[in-house]
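QA checklist item 7 of 12: single-chain prediction sanity check.
[x] sequence parsed
[x] length recorded as 215
[x] structure emitted
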Amino acid sequence: MRQVFAAFTLAAMSFGLAACSGGDNQPQFRTTGVRAPTGYCAADPRSVANVQKIADIDEGNGCQVSNAWSATGLGGVALDKPQILNCATAYTASQWLTDVVQPAAQANFGARVVQIDVPSAYACRPRNNVRGAKLSEHGFGNAIDVSRFTLEDGRTIDVLHGWSGSADERQFLRTVRSEACGRFSTVLGPGSDPHHRDHIHLDLQQQRGGGPYCH
């Protein structure tokens, strides 16, 4: 039964990824000017995350993940569902959770974060899901979105409501977002644009100007 389920899952993923090309004259996304990550990683992510190495991904349409890993936990924090990330994103997200998120949770709530909800990691799609836009960093497994944090006492802090919620929720979310800047090259969230009102977007895009883009 497990083998049948695995085969069904892979078939469903293949169907969904094949749909990226679209069915009319307008491409689902553009790749002009988009640079794929090198695949370089500072360290083995298994030292800081619950991950398994998987075969690299190349959809033949621009979507590709070099040095790909399947993650169920990062930095000692469980993910609500398994996600595919490249090595650098898995490692950097783990460090962010350990060095930034956990201290902020302790300071504001007196409890550790035990799970994060990740609505998107690897996904073969255009930026902001806008047809015809450039290929998203998600198409390289080079990005991770976080929409909710669950504490060990059962309390949940979701980005959509917590951003204007209680004082401790506001402080926590602003801290984890601001201190992600520099670790990640792109950090977006509520106030950036309507597409990011309900999650924090973190990616390692190779910025042409050299510095991070945090908005």
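[x] summary fact logged: The first strand starts at residue 49 and ends at 53.
[ ] second reviewer sign-off
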